[in-house]
């Protein structure tokens, strides 16, 4: 395992965690309902070094819930992939770990950052940050049975100013966590206000294992700046990658200090969106795929002219053919107005789930 790096200049090395190499050190962050396997595959092709699945309940796995197992499935081409588990009962961990490994996990991540009320009330997600004993027991139950590295994903405390996350992370490291991901906002902040990267630097100082920094990396230069300023071993990107799976290639160029390729134009972006829809349809069937694609389509047109009109029409599409025709019409409309893309501000991303 490679240790944390010190902040400085130079091209960042790939991150090694156990037998897993994350190259480039750029990670697609887990997003519930979004980072499903078709999208993860696009992000890997787009340049991510590791992609994360949405959180899956260990209780669901213990109850043989079909949906939980379906959520765990992976595609051959997307490795390395991290599958994220959430729950609070250490005794359910070994079975969940076995299911995740069976599904193809190269890394298993434990969610300790989700503040959705239902998850929190069950003692899982961010509630574990208030229960260091329980959090350590859960981590050691996973790390003790897993053959792949186990990581944990934390918030920078429960409330702003709460520094308990540092001691907690040390404890989880002792319990077997092979790396720690930190979303540099306190749980009470949700997604509001800017992420404070000094929390990442502090964890890098405090831990032996690699730290993966997360929060507000939007543009290619942000990834480079986060590594330089905090000394983190890898950067995790969530919202800025939604509807922009190619962003990782652009960020990788920035990390190498090379010229950053420009954003694809509207036709390029919507070509990727259509490919996404086709992959999803092959995977889960056309009807479900078209339903799932709605939220993605909203993101693919972020910053394009008349995106609002496109989004409302995309909500009514129920077939691949319909989507293809809609995209063709929209591109023709854009060409005729010559009103081409403009900004891809992450602020337009609607964060629905904390
Ligand atoms: C729609 C959505 C769903 C999310 N789902 C998860 C999840 O399942 N597990 C998790 O650990 N974090 C989840 N997150 C948090 C992200 O992984 C990430 O920590 C957060 O968005 C900050 O990173 P960013 O600024 O790059 O978006 C989710 C975020 C969003 C916007």
Describe this structure in words.
The chain has helices spanning 37-45, 58-62, 66-72, 93-102, 117-121, 132-145, 164-174, 198-206, 220-230, 247-256, 266-284, 286-300, 307-314, 320-337, and strands at residues 15-17, 20-22, 26-28, 50-52, 56-57, 81-86, 107-112, 150-155, 179-183, 211-214, 234-237. It has 354 residues and is α/β, with parallel strands linked by helices. The chain has 2 domains: 15-256, Aldolase class I (TIM Barrel), CATH 3.20.20; 266-337. Strands 3-4-6-7-8-9-10-11 form an 8-stranded parallel β-barrel, surrounded by 7 helices. Strands 1-2 form a two-stranded antiparallel sheet. α7 links the parallel β8 (150-155) and β9. Residues 29-32, 34, 54-55, 84, 111, 113-114, 153, 183, 214-217, 237-240, 351-353 line the site of flavin mononucleotide (FMN).
Quick overview:
By secondary structure, this protein is of the alpha/beta class.
Summarize the topology.
Layout: E1 15-17, E2 20-22, E3 26-28, H1 37-45, E4 50-52, E5 56-57, H2 58-62, H3 66-72, E6 81-86, H4 93-102, E7 107-112, H5 117-121, H6 132-145, E8 150-155, H7 164-174, E9 179-183, H8 198-206, E10 211-214, H9 220-230, E11 234-237, H10 247-256, H11 266-284, H12 286-300, H13 307-314, H14 320-337
Parallel strand pairs: 3-4, 3-11, 4-6, 5-6, 6-7, 7-8, 8-9, 9-10, 10-11
Antiparallel strand pairs: 1-2
Helix pairs in contact: 1-11, 4-6, 6-7, 9-10, 11-12, 11-14
Bound molecules: flavin mononucleotide.
